[in-house]
TrEMBL record, chains A, B, C:
GO terms for biological process: oxaloacetate metabolic process. It comes from Natrialba chahannaoensis JCM 10990. Its cofactor is Mg(2+). NCBIfam families: malate_syn_AceB_Halo. InterPro entries: MS, MSH_C, Pyrv/PenolPyrv_kinase-like_dom, Pyrv_kinase-like_dom_sf. Keywords: Magnesium, Metal-binding. This is HpcH/HpaI aldolase. GO terms for molecular function: catalytic activity; magnesium ion binding. Residues 280-395 form the Malate synthase H C-terminal domain.
Amino acid sequence: MRSDGQHDRSFVRTFFTSPAAVEGEADSAKMLRRAVQLRGMRAPDVWVPDNEDATAPSMRDDGIENIVDVVAEHGESFPGEIHPRIVWHRDRPDTRYQGLQQMLYIADPERGAIEYIDGFVVPEVGDIDDWKKADECLTIIESEYGLDEGRLSMSVIVESGQAELALADLRDEIGKPTNNLERLSLLVDGEVDYTKDMRAITPTGELPAWPELRHNTSRSASANGLIAIDGPYDDIRDIDGYHERMTANQAKGMLGIWALTPEQVIEANAAPLPPKTGTWLIDVNGHAVELNAEDDVQVYDGEQLSLEKIESDRYRLGVGSNERTVCDDELHEELLQLTDYVPSLNDIVDSMETFEEATEAGTGAIAMDNSTTLSIDGIEVTISDERMWDEATYQASQTPISLFQDVYENRPDQREELREMYGEHVVKRAMNVG
Amino acid sequence: MRSDGQHDRSFVRTFFTSPAAVEGEADSAKMLRRAVQLRGMRAPDVWVPDNEDATAPSMRDDGIENIVDVVAEHGESFPGEIHPRIVWHRDRPDTRYQGLQQMLYIADPERGAIEYIDGFVVPEVGDIDDWKKADECLTIIESEYGLDEGRLSMSVIVESGQAELALADLRDEIGKPTNNLERLSLLVDGEVDYTKDMRAITPTGELPAWPELRHNTSRSASANGLIAIDGPYDDIRDIDGYHERMTANQAKGMLGIWALTPEQVIEANAAPLPPKTGTWLIDVNGHAVELNAEDDVQVYDGEQLSLEKIESDRYRLGVGSNERTVCDDELHEELLQLTDYVPSLNDIVDSMETFEEATEAGTGAIAMDNSTTLSIDGIEVTISDERMWDEATYQASQTPISLFQDVYENRPDQREELREMYGEHVVKRAMNVG
Amino acid sequence: MRSDGQHDRSFVRTFFTSPAAVEGEADSAKMLRRAVQLRGMRAPDVWVPDNEDATAPSMRDDGIENIVDVVAEHGESFPGEIHPRIVWHRDRPDTRYQGLQQMLYIADPERGAIEYIDGFVVPEVGDIDDWKKADECLTIIESEYGLDEGRLSMSVIVESGQAELALADLRDEIGKPTNNLERLSLLVDGEVDYTKDMRAITPTGELPAWPELRHNTSRSASANGLIAIDGPYDDIRDIDGYHERMTANQAKGMLGIWALTPEQVIEANAAPLPPKTGTWLIDVNGHAVELNAEDDVQVYDGEQLSLEKIESDRYRLGVGSNERTVCDDELHEELLQLTDYVPSLNDIVDSMETFEEATEAGTGAIAMDNSTTLSIDGIEVTISDERMWDEATYQASQTPISLFQDVYENRPDQREELREMYGEHVVKRAMNVG
């Protein structure tokens, strides 16, 4: 895309890499051609023609040409941003010089690709002075080709301890007159190389979870107005694992993730959006179990909870291997503590509208009521919870809505799927709230 | 308090906010008046008349006047420190200017409140240069009203990625001749706004636990001689949850927490103090279960552990679904590994006195013995453990005692409750040890 | 060792401290004499005659003399590096001056110890300016005794919030012309004093796990080319706990650990090396359970998994309390997700050799196959998994091999034990791969 719908996205859900040149194929640009034609939920927010790790070193000259050809031909109609990845290494000046040459080639306006390209992805960066070297390459390219200073964005792969440390230095350096680091766009974790750089070992060879790295990346994105993206999830068949990782990332403020396949793109495009329908959860020995909605009743049909009425206002409640006798009120209170609700898009919009009306009428905080009927072993119990909403709650709940609005505005190719998923009416209200 | 009992507390357990003005009440200062009259375990170590988020924007002019009135009238006899919270925002100069005006109003000696006020709480700070702006406002106020430079303390709410980064910069900036950042007192996390600033999403809207933020806050407090306080725990009926949070915080060195109600104040005042009586725990599938003391025997009466004597020096020990046959020695060793002891105030004082005597006699390390009799399925087993104490163990165990001493000295209004709780004798010894 | 086999180790598995002088013994240097004669897997990579916390203050003058005597006599033949720990404290100039004097005494070439000493361990450091003070002491000593600048390495104990912050500053300071911080060698966590400095409290007095401290130490080691070491594990009888700690550390890139006894040295020397034989694991309710290899079949004989054939291509699979009916393919897929493989040294060498051949032949990524037969309730199921290996996977898997090679090269005294453990053939191949 670009040229110059300009679209500076506030959110990026998906960072999809494609090999720039594959060996032994009639058309070495096959993967690029396939990717650039993706649309809708199969198309990523950011597409990365990858002339680094995904492309064999011997194929990288072809890769650069393929990128230029495919982007020049199809870039205009691609619905997401385009950020090719070139080679770079904090410890190797020759690799950095190759990276400069690759970018010079791709960015040459004569070749017709640059107008659809948003920026470049720079891997293997080191400390902040190394980031400045890459920034300087982009400044030179802009100057050489008469592009506006800052026209090309720069995204980095954080895959070394040095780069992780640079995340904390960034805010002191961005905005200095001798660099153009304001061009920074995505901060992307690269856990495979990071694991190597940290010299970590796990018994099975599985990657460590690196929670601190992800926190520090997300924090730097927050402090500098950038966007945090998690690295690749290798086990492409393990959709549940991919989802769990995204849920954990979202709780860190890292709303985007790498995708290796169009199937992962679909999952990762949908994951940070609120669900179509709300769900009740119940905590069973520390695990959240989803209840089955039957009409308006939420049914628990596992075997870890038990409930029996032993006389009027006396129940026997079993949770795991613990049993206790409780009265009506205690039962209500106990179940309230055990349950939780995952709101739908519609629910969030409802609450926000209600809060907005209340503040317009001069009230700063209101109680939102949430009630349902649970059924355990055939006994129905109605629980009802109140949650106070103030300005801060309101603003915190706004993140998924802002993301939804950002997607809807910047990805016209996904609108129909979103309207089908949520219904026309909810989508319209979601676009007007906040 | 203050004026000038001066009391620079080394520890702060409780940070209790009260709305400065509530709408629709005959007396908009009702909440302040109620709070300022709290005493004993219901009164916090730090009381925060809150003219920011807890008070509707339309009521904040009233709020400032209420703070001045209530503190001028009752401040002298309030047993804790008083730190009003004013408005501030890293991104909004107009809000910062309002903050300055609010502080100028409150601090005016003519109004009679300032002599009881220890300092101000500044919310929504950004990076360290923003902290300096707030510090400069306080310097101006001190200069304007002829107060000693540094007389007013400054506490900040860490509720942005920028502020979290500033925690690591603080030690390089504090002590520079161009600022008075030595006035810093509390570093308080604010997880609601932090979650918004980090753009984090959780399915149920629950706040993420943010372990790294809490670590970084505690670390900065440690490195700069300040005090770390965790943010509000919203679910005010969930006392167990509040306790779990405090236990987790204490293991991070974050000994204080926000309190929203006098009930939370009671809990949070008591939580970091050692218990009156010691307790034995046994690990059952990764969960620590408290044993019931019957006379001198610690009885396990759950169903996850089983013990049977099958012949002389042969037992069958079941832990969860695992069973194994063990001899006497193995049984002892196994149970020793599974059990743990939570010492009482008395126990800690005992150990410290013993160690102090030993070092006076020239011994650098001594073995502390701890033994008890367990009863499982009616079979009694006596276990006995030794732990080496050296200078480092001694000093690490001193933290709860130092906290106890700090409380006892600075909070005369809590002495009677403490003596009732622990007994006169233990309290006296605890005040003399260390 | 040293003098001047020089051996700059890339990896350090074990950091073994011995009291420099014990009271009440005929020979106060007894512990030193015993330690310096350790060989093979009982001897540490780094040996630390400890004249700080392990030695009573009143014995430290003796300690210094003992260190000189024992190292001068036995140092030449000791197979690991020798790094005495002296006294130091960020807050006490008198202690720092004592530290300087202790080092001056030990390093005096007249006394004959220094040629076998690699460097010094400096405890209780504060922020980076305090590290520079210790570095300056070493520079003075080198100058005084005509040693090359940088000849003496410096290792620090990170046991304060200030020192943890310094870890992030190090890369900006190392290499400045006014210091010799390039002499830094080990970054060692000291959790007992760190816990005190952070003022953390746990109910049982157990040390907190401090995951962020360990991450930050490991990250700084990675960013500055240093080596990260975890602190002491006090419960010396709890070998399982020590192992779990090391496994967690290794996943953070912290491959070395403190050892308090020769038994801990053996464990910690072996822990980061790949196992002799591979093992299959199966995930049972979140716990990895090792399967028993009987011939080529991996047998599960616990009670948490069940498998029953109910008709052709129909199985009932039970995992914990969940049961479901699955067809052949689903069963295969399900079991594949539940299982994991811990490769042996031989397996890792195999995979690396295969990958090296493939890249020589021009292929950038190959699929490694891994298959086995599982047996659950007597039913055998063959599963087979493919994992893609590219350059990054290859390099990440290299860490344990590089460590193995480093050990084999620098510790001739362990070669025989390694050959006995793994077999001559595998050892030879492991030394040639990578």
